[in-house]
Amino acid sequence: MIEIRDCDNYEAAKELILEYSKIKGAESCFVSLDKELADLKGFYQDGALLLGYCGEKPVATIAIKKLDDTTAEAKRLYIKPECRGRGYARPMLNAMLDKSRELDFKEVRFTTKPEVMSIGYSVYKRMRFEELENNEGTVLMRMIL
Q: What whole-number distance in Å separates Cα of residue 17 and Cα of residue 14?
């Protein structure tokens, strides 16, 4: 079982995001990584950063970045490799959607690379995220809240 909390450990969040950034093929998802990691709290101001815990160990992350007054971007869904296959992605996504509603967003968007993140992409499709466009293998998806 995963317990999801508002970020209470920014160092652990940095470690998870850095680990995610090293996935082969995901490099283009991290264009402002240095700026993001330098001030995670500020980077996700008016949004949220959530951590998933297995016991007391942070094992997953997902973030919400404000795009405008009604739209947020979901970012950084990552689950440590040794914790995959336990059904943690769906609760992380549901927590992000709940938090987005709490923050009064009406829509959540995110980009993914199905070729690199095929399991995540299939979860998004099963959860009924709508595919808006596919630009050279990078897919923009959304969910109306």
A: 5
